[in-house]
Specification:
The complex is a heterodimer. Chain A is of the alpha+beta class. Chain A folds into two domains: 60 residues, Arc Repressor Mutant, subunit A; 82 residues, Glutaredoxin. Chain A contains seven helices and four strands. A four-stranded mixed beta sheet of chain A has the order 2-1-3-4, with helices on one face. Chain A is elongated. The model of chain A has no long low-confidence stretch (mean pLDDT 92). Chain B is of the alpha/beta class. Chain B has three domains: 73 residues, Ubiquitin-like (UB roll), CATH 3.10.20.740; 117 residues, Alpha-Beta Plaits (2-Layer Sandwich); 352 residues, Rossmann fold (3-Layer(aba) Sandwich). Chain B has a five-stranded mixed beta sheet with strand order 2-1-5-3-4, sandwiched between helices. Chain B has a four-stranded parallel beta sheet with strand order 11-10-13-16, with helices on both faces. Chain B has a four-stranded mixed beta sheet with strand order 12-19-18-17, with helices on both faces. In chain B, strand 7 and strand 8 form a beta hairpin. The chains are: A alpha+beta, B alpha/beta. At the A-B interface, helix 4 of A face strand 7 of B.
């Protein structure tokens, strides 16, 4: 069970968008922005509040890559694997992140909850390929060599 | 309105909702996997794609008919296109066809044959996922799912439940309950309509015939059976009989041969149900009890009330369902040493059109003296499979009558198989007279369909100086609508009859599938015809029922015929 505060927050967000089926996606986005993930219990709660089935809400939440039922790290690293980045060798960059942080295609988030590494299909910055985004910051023309430095920089940022 | 040229022939159309309907009405059975006339159009399978005179390809299910259209349905391009779709579906399919429950009854199999598939060029790289055996009623095998979405739509649109949905995206898309829970733990009501609409073996019936065979072969066990009203008009179709033809005598004969010692007719306990339910209704009306009275025959509906309208659970009749009543009575009968001199164990098997009955039999209130009343529930489809496995020539077998003392039901019991039947039987019970005129008047009071099929019927009948307001509905989405209106106070009724499956038990989740769902009307007519053939029309004129009340049932009505408590599941 989640703490009561989660439901209160959800109530606020639901209130803001209105109790209607069409509010589902913005509500889920706000909840995820708040907690860096979408707690399953809250999804069930939201579905009941806006009058759709839990199955429907789950269907929408799993359709979009952006929603995650698992808690994400403090830094969400999005390695672009769109066509332009892919041909400019984005895969070695992804592998460098995974190796450095002990992650894999199945395990996206580091145990210290600092990093989540995922791929995205296109960041729309093909001119800067290969591109990586860390939270809201764009890191253009990445190389596997730069990965370690970036991680260290972010770790240093921790305090 | 207008004219369309289909493969060079001029075809008139009026108000068909899409091009596919017109093409099919014109005698061309375009293949489809996802199109169901009663559901919303999904347009997923693309098999109904046609070509127009400008070489444009489009799915005819999603195309509005326009006057003057020129349509081709059988060009080289289209044949190639259809064949490729089937090939791709097969490539990603778990092809254990020979051991699949749907073997011979699978739409994908039929279409593979129709499209002339001889090879599959692509490898199946999909990982196998485990089957879901959590429900007492249905088995889910996601490996056989072709993502047509029929189950998703029937569950949400006709049943108002929505226990299944698509999850994930692209090549990872699967149909599942929320959070990939086991279906048996969800609010699924076990109606089995998803299985009826599933074109492949992705959703099938839980089979219970293995332990029944074991019991039949055990000399120390007396195996007794009951056959529900709706079974008789659906059973024959698998053996080449006309849809809707009443073959109860042949089913009884085949079951006798298989070793069922006593084969009873659930129409008998349907009569008991009416005796009890009518009395309960009159009592509630006269003593100001909870109204509206909600019928309790349909276990999927009872579970639906428990899940969605728990505040109405005291409105649900305390009567056991006909299955529950007959099993309880039979078990009690053989518990009496007088009727069971050799002291053998009795196994009660019910043959039902319904997958939810499997759940009902295991409900905590389906036990008497700590024993499960109905040991095994077999659907019509399972009994068909059993008969097929014996090799009995169903066509040639001489019909036999069900056994006494529980094998004789009135016409009122027979019509339990259709939506409105329970109510009509209650009215027959309450209205004096049994002449043709009275019976016809009852049949025409609004309880049956009019010229058009309708799934919600509201009417009132005069009784003891009052106007009894009744609502009969089938399909749980309709039930939800009615209950919302009752809850808000918008509508008031004295009696509400709900059957979870549209048109009633004849279209239950355990029945053999019809090639066209609209043929349900034929089964309905079959039930009404079977009623016409009965000698006794009213439960209170059934001599077997009366003698039971006078003797064996005395002081045991409550123990055997009523539920000690409400249980949704």
């Amino acid at each position: 069970m989640l703490e009561e505060a989660y439901y209160q927050k959800a109530d606020e967000i639901i209130e803001h968008y209105g109790k209607k089926a069409a509010s589902l996606i913005p509500i889920m986005q706000d909840i995820q922005a708040e907690y860096r993930y979408l707690p399953g219990e809250l999804l069930t709660y939201v579905a009941g509040q806006i009058g759709i089935t839990e199955e429907k809400a789950y269907s929408v939440a799993t359709f979009y890559e952006n929603f995650s039922f698992e808690q994400k790290g403090k830094y969400v690293v999005k390695v672009c694997d769109g066509t332009a980045c892919h041909v400019r060798k984005s895969v070695p960059i992804l592998e460098a992140f995974q190796k450095e942080l002990g992650l894999s295609a199945k395990k996206h988030t580091s145990d210290d909850m600092l990093f989540t590494v995922e791929t995205v299909s296109c960041l729309g910055a093909c001119g800067l390929a290969p591109t990586v985004m860390v939270n809201e910051d764009v890191h253009p023309k990445m190389t596997p060599e730069k990965v370690q430095a970036l991680i260290q920089e972010l770790r240093g940022d921790k305090k | 309105m207008g004219v369309i040229t289909i493969d060079g022939r001029k075809v008139n159309f009026t108000n068909e909702k899409n091009l596919l309907e017109i093409i099919r009405n014109a005698g061309i059975d375009l293949p489809t996997l996802c199109y169901q006339p009663e559901l919303s159009t999904f347009g997923a399978c693309r098999l109904c794609t046609v070509e127009d005179d400008r070489g444009r390809l489009f799915a005819s299910c999603s195309e509005e008919p326009r006057d003057g259209m020129v349509i081709l349905t059988n060009t080289d391009r289209l044949r190639k296109h259809r064949k490729l779709i089937i090939e791709l579906l097969l490539a990603a399919h778990c092809q254990t066809c020979l051991t699949c429950e749907k073997n011979g009854d699978c739409k994908l199999q039929q279409l593979a044959r129709r499209s002339g598939q001889t090879t599959i060029r692509f490898e199946n790289y999909k990982e196998m996922v485990p089957l879901d055996f959590s429900s007492p009623s249905i088995v889910r095998d996601p490996n056989k799912c072709i993502l047509c979405g029929n189950c998703v739509r029937v569950c949400a649109e006709l049943q108002g439940v929505g226990a299944l949905e698509f999850a994930n995206r692209g090549s990872e898309t699967m149909v599942m309950p929320a959070f990939d829970r086991e279906i048996g733990t969800t609010h699924c009501v076990n109606c089995g309509q998803c299985r009826v609409y599933c074109p492949t073996g992705a959703i099938s019936i839980v089979h219970n015939f293995t332990p029944v065979w074991a019991a039949l072969n055990d000399p120390n066990v007396r195996v007794v059976a009951q056959i529900a009203p709706a079974v008789r008009v659906a059973f024959g179709q698998v053996f080449g009989f006309r849809s809707g033809e009443n073959v109860i005598g042949k089913v009884v004969a085949a079951m006798h041969r298989m070793g069922f010692e006593e084969v009873y007719d659930t129409t008998f306990s349907a009569d008991l149900t009416i005796m009890e339910e009518a009395a309960e209704f009159v009592e509630r009306v006269e003593t100001g009890g909870k109204l509206p009275l909600l019928t309790s025959c349909c276990p999927a509906w009872v579970k639906f009330v428990g899940e969605n309208f728990p505040e109405f659970q005291d409105n649900v009749s305390t009567c056991r369902s006909p299955q529950g009543m007959l099993s309880a009575v039979v078990k009690e009968y053989f518990r009496d040493r007088k009727n069971n001199p050799d002291g053998r164990k009795t196994i009660m098997v019910s043959v039902m059109p319904c997958t939810a009955k499997k759940m009902e039999a295991k409900r905590p209130n389906s036990f008497t003296e700590g024993q499960q009343d109905t040991d095994f529930v077999l659907t019509t489809k399972e009994m068909v499979d059993m008969v097929l496995s014996t090799g009995v020539d169903f066509d040639a077998i001489e019909p036999e009558a069900p056994d006494i003392p529980f094998g004789f039901g009135s016409g009122g019991g027979v019509i339990f198989g259709v939506s409105g039947g329970v109510t009509e039987a209650v009215i027959r019970r309450l209205v004096p007279g049994n002449d043709q005129h009275t019976l016809n008047e009852i049949a025409e009071c609004g309880v049956r369909d009019g010229a058009e099929e309708s799934f919600i019927r509201e009417f009132s009948i005069p009784y003891n100086g009052m106007d009894v307001k009744i609502c009969v509905a089938s399909g749980l989405a309709n039930a939800r609508k009615i209950m919302e209106q009752v809850k808000s106070g918008e509508k008031e009724y004295h009696l509400i009859e709900i059957m979870a499956c549209r048109r009633g038990c004849i279209m239950g989740g355990g029945q053999p599938r019809l090639s066209n769902i609209k043929k349900g009307i034929v089964r309905r007519n079959g039930i009404y015809a079977a009623d016409k053939e009965t000698v006794v029309k009213k439960c209170n004129e059934n001599p077997m029922v009366l003698s039971l009340y006078d003797g064996f049932l005395k002081n045991r009505e409550h123990k055997l015929l009523h539920n000690p408590m409400f249980c949704a599941k």
